[in-house]
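Field notebook, page 471. I keep forgetting to write these up properly, so this time I am using the form the group agreed on. The chain and the ligand, arginine, are recorded exactly as supplied. Prediction of the bound pose follows.
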Amino acid sequence: MTDDASADRGQLWHGRFDVAPAEELVAFTGSLAVDQRLLVDDVACSRAHVRGLHRAGLLTDSELAEVLGGLDAVEMEFRSGELVFAPGDEDVHTAIERRVTELIGPAGGKLHTGRSRNDQVATAFRRYVVRSLGDLAGRLVDLVAVLAERADEVGTGDDGAYLPGYTHLQQAQPVMLAHHLMAHAWALLRDLDRVLDCRRRADVSPLGAGALAGSSLPLDPDATAADLGFAARFENSLDATSDRDFAAETLFVCSLLAVHLSRMGEEVVLWSTEEFGFVRLDDAYATGSSMLPQKKNPDVAELARGRAGRLIGDLAGFLATLKSLPLAYNRDLQEDKEPVFDALDNVALAIGAMCGLYRTLVFHTERMAAAADSPYAAATDLAELLVADGVPFRSAHAVVGALVRRSLDEGIPFADLVAAEPQLGERALPLLEPGASVLRRTTPGGAGPVPVQAQRARLGAALDAARAAVD
Ligand code: ARG
């Protein structure tokens, strides 16, 4: 094919080439299917860029008006679903320039003055990521608020709900249900903090870095950065065009969040079993079985658990892409968008579903209390009673441990053995009363009502601060 044939196929670089690209190359290297969702961001970046060209005297007033009109038209066509992509549209940037030029003629050829797709794609992608991280932070606030509401509902006072706390998934000590719910809330608030921190670092404009080295034209990257609402411009053009830390960080932040959601999901799976029976799922957040009529399945919780695997894959895969890349731009970097879109989309969906799941969970608090009031729940309290008498903790532990063993081996009620034990006796029996143990967790940050009420107040303050940071 001739140079003209190559130009006919819409290739941006046809001047240098004798023949049009091979079909296999086009099929393998094109990214339009993935990156077309950047169109609105890319058009916004192009507007800022052409306004900069105009200020630099590189576009006349009428050329500026024409190009801006063309960009508006392309955005409108895209939003209304009327934009028809052409076979030569390798990526969204190519498609926009092609369509603007079709619509307005030769002035469209000035759009790409002083710009490369290398700085262009980094700018549009950052703009998308910065906005998406803001959305994600808002969703996180919603989920933390649901947990806080549920904590209030199940009670933080002396009569609040409590359940067994577990280590090694073996019953350990009773904890307030509100305490348990707030444990997830604090993890999510750390995620939120990371999201905002990641957004702060992503909020830097690479526009004006060119292909890798800046430009001979009198461009003003500070002005275009400000025009686009970025907090700053790049410091180094090589770094600006090849840095994808913001993408990798976004993937990490989303992965860790997904891991937290997976832990919440696992808990609901477990708690909704016949064997635990701690919660009942609302019908709107449960699924049935196509074959077994009696089934009610916790699919939301399972997928919150399962999808975390994909998110971890997005992160690990993209870090492998970045590893050892030489400065500056390499086409490998085009691999950044799929995992980031996948991660952001999926955590948004997961948070939405988990908000609904947790908002509608019915807690079977009597069942939780019954499980928590096992005779042995107060074993540590008994040992601590001896400690208050001056007995070394190690000896106290052994005394109580021996009573537990005898009770289990010989089937003697634990309370009888406690009452008969000279070092403990009748005075220890109130510790074995149902619900007594959790009241005794009084230290700051602990699982009993006194510290849980203080914790709830602190969570409220943290939630207010998070809301303010997100707005
Ligand atoms: N589509 C590419 C990307 O997403 C941008 C194009 C840069 N291509 C190039 N050959 N310089 O990274």
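OBSERVATIONS:
- The longest strand covers residues 170-176.
- The two ends are 55 Å apart (CA to CA).
FOLLOW-UP: compare against the apo run.
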